[in-house]
Amino acid sequence: MITSATSTTYWTSLDSPLGPLLLTAGPDGALTSLSVPGQKGGRSVQDGWRRDPGPFRAAEAQLQAYFAGELKEFDLPLSTAGTEFRERVWAALNDIPYGATATYGEIAARAGASRAAVRAVGGAIGANPLLVLRPCHRVIGADGSLTGYAGGLERKIRLLGLEGVLPQPS
């Protein structure tokens, strides 16, 4: 989270099939969060933030293409601050390809954590500040179940349907 009085947080809101998306970026234009309404741990606009769609034009175009089924991989500058462990888990999320899933245990292994660390991995995944862009929706339970998603299970089902992992919801 950006807390320095000298740094500016930019934000915009974009319409999407998941509802309005709140995007934030730092002064360098790198995206710092993408949140949906009602998201567990999601961000909301704060006093002092500057609304400016300029830094988000590439993100808007890529998100529109993704939701239209035309884009499978995002190429955007991202900047998040987490513990070393969270950063390793988040990096492992980026390796799950479009149209595929991985289990929490697989993410633990990719992040260099033991199988016993699966709960901690789940916590790190749940704290992912960049929904959709960093594909935490592609993580499933060891038994194939669609376990938690900070943006809500309905949105997870919608995203996995879009990517062809599940039938599209009606």
UniProtKB/TrEMBL annotation:
Region (Disordered), start-end ranges: 34-53
Catalytic activity: a 4-O-methyl-thymidine in DNA + L-cysteinyl-[protein] = a thymidine in DNA + S-methyl-L-cysteinyl-[protein]; a 6-O-methyl-2'-deoxyguanosine in DNA + L-cysteinyl-[protein] = S-methyl-L-cysteinyl-[protein] + a 2'-deoxyguanosine in DNA
InterPro entries from the UniProt entry: MethylDNA_cys_MeTrfase_DNA-bd, MethylDNA_cys_MeTrfase_DNAb, MethylG_MeTrfase_N, MGMT, MGMT_N_sf, WH-like_DNA-bd_sf
GO CC terms, sorted: cytoplasm
Record CDD domains: ATase (cd06445)
Localization, UniProt: Cytoplasm
Methylated-DNA-[protein]-cysteine S-methyltransferase DNA binding domain residues: 84-165
Family as reported in the entry's similarity comment: Belongs to the MGMT family.
Further details from the record: This enzyme catalyzes only one turnover and therefore is not strictly catalytic. According to one definition, an enzyme is a biocatalyst that acts repeatedly and over many reaction cycles.
Biological function: Involved in the cellular defense against the biological effects of O6-methylguanine (O6-MeG) and O4-methylthymine (O4-MeT) in DNA. Repairs the methylated nucleobase in DNA by stoichiometrically transferring the methyl group to a cysteine residue in the enzyme. This is a suicide reaction: the enzyme is irreversibly inactivated.
Protein name according to UniProt: Methylated-DNA--protein-cysteine methyltransferase
Source organism of this protein record: Streptomyces naganishii JCM 4654
Organism classification: Bacteria, Bacillati, Actinomycetota, Actinomycetes, Kitasatosporales
